[in-house]
Amino acid sequence: MNERLANIDPHRVDLVALYRSMLRIRTIEEEIAARYGEQKMRCPIHLSIGQEAVAVGVSAALTPADQVVSTHRCHAHYLAKGGNLVAMLSELMGKTTGCCGGRGGSMHLFDLEAGMLLSLPIVAASIPVGVGAALAFKQEGKRNVAVIYLGDASLEEGSITRARISRR
Ligand SMILES: Cc1ncc(C[n+]2csc(CCOP(=O)(O)OP(=O)(O)O)c2C)c(N)n1
Question: What superfamily in CATH does domain 3-167 come from?
């Protein structure tokens, strides 16, 4: 197990802060759902309501220098990792102030400063990118962690097998 994860003491983790972070994400996503019909968000949207704990729990074990790669369902991963909310909402609305300049939409969130490396809607495409980020850390002699979020549909894609092979 990664040393950083192994060192987490559940009695010292700020559970209220974790809960607040989960609630914040839930509230934001519920508001997005409620307002989607206004047609100001000009992109398809995939919510992750009910999965907030995964994003918040994982991010709690990471530093800003650790990197995360996500999928089409990336709002919670982005927010939990410290992604900028205004840049995210601007992106959903296709504004130039969005994190992708308004060209990517909901499925392409990233925030390099926060260590949110990339989100990719192509199923399993996040896997080789995350493996590459981990390899870069290794080659640079850094002890950082790269996290790949994926849905179970990724498991039947060839890139997950190739990622396992390249790990050896
Ligand atoms: C290579 C590829 N094939 C098909 C699609 C169309 N597609 C978009 S989301 C999705 C389902 C993804 O399921 P899963 O990864 O389990 O995530 P979930 O949406 O269930 O959270 C598919 C097949 C795609 N984006 N990429």
Answer: Thiamin diphosphate (ThDP)-binding fold, Pyr/PP domains (3.40.50.970)
